[in-house]
Amino acid sequence: MQHSTVTARTRRLVGAAGAVAVVAALVIPSGAAQAADVVSQGTGRLITTSLLGTDVLDSVVALKGAVAVNPDASGDVTVDRPLDASAVAGLLGLQAGSTNLFGDNGIIRLGAVGQYAQARDDGSSSAFSGAVSAAPSLIGVGTVTPSNVGSPQAGDTAQLVVGTPGGLVGIGAHFGTLAASAQQAADGTQSGQYVLADAGFEVNGSLVSGTLGLINPALNTLIALANTSGAGLTNPFASGTIALSLDDLLSVAGVSDINALPAGTDLVSYVPTAVAQKITQQVQSVLDAAHAFAQQLKGNFLTLAAGVALDAAVSTAQATIVPILQGLTNTLVAPLADALTALVQLQVNVQNHGADGSFTQTALRVGVGPNGSLAAVDLASATVGPNAGQLAVPVAGPESLGLAAGGIGMLVLAFGAVTLLRRRRTAVGSLEI
What we know:
It is built from ten helices and 16 strands. By secondary structure, it is α+β, with helices and mostly antiparallel strands. It has two domains: 2-30 and 395-432; 38-196 and 245-270 and 317-391, no CATH class. The strands form three sheets. Strands 3, 6, 7, 8, 9, 10, 11 and 12 form an eight-stranded antiparallel beta sheet that branches. A six-stranded antiparallel beta sheet has the order 2-1-16-15-14-13.
């Protein structure tokens, strides 16, 4: 009877040890499946700035962007999150100094934009933000839902206006397309793309108007004389603003495609020279047109005198204006560069590799004040990673295996106890005989 009791107790001990081992192996996560490690993740975020405090971010979910996190490979995770009315309200209070950053009265206005991210089971991920019109080429057709913030002009994704015409310098910029995407492949390869197209820039302020004030009298006199004979010329500087295209800036940079610019290039650095070149080109255009019209007049006996007079006026205008144009490098480009650098920066193709293994592609970084000291705003950013892939899927790890080993050890000890008890029982039986 005693033998049976001991054996039963031993069997219960063995069963308990086995149960502990199995439960430990199933319940305790492995070291690779901690909260910091996920299968894949991505974030498409239209607006990123240090001016967005946690109080704003916590209350306005849309400002956090489209965040897709795949923790366990139980299905691809897709998030499409357009900005909404609450996001607009959260932006309106942001200021650079005393100037509003967003809204109808702000520096920045945004149009049909979207935020999107996808985290896939195979350990790959993708993200997008910016103009929805760019989504087909960057992230796929029909993936992104558009939203509107502010009221830009028709066809523009983003507009920025910094400074005023009455100040030392003012600059406006508008972008028909502004977007970025980031991708991380299943093998861990990370890459980014951005699109910035249909852009235009307007430059004004006292530095520009001061230069134009030296040119306009001679140019206006020439234009007035030419128009008395029906030339129909106009002064391109009547508004006091110099309009530049993206091609004008790229010409100064010496490239034909914006994607040929180094990552992080500040477009504003090309503006002063582009302004000087545009003034020179437009002055030359008027002079050439007046000269051509004078030759036309001189070809007719009835208008010969008017043609001779107009030709003489062209020479007089050239004598006055050309020296001004030749001195623009010192009189306009240098001071304009100093003023613009202290006012704003527009960096394109900003790329960042995080210490945690993430990668972020940003289409445009707007800095307000010297080196962005008043405000720095990233427009159209996409982040992928860090992605652990299938290593992040919960499996039996070192901790559970350790406990399981302990359980197995208990199992071995229990069997050892059974064997010992049986031997002792046998020995006792032998003595009794």
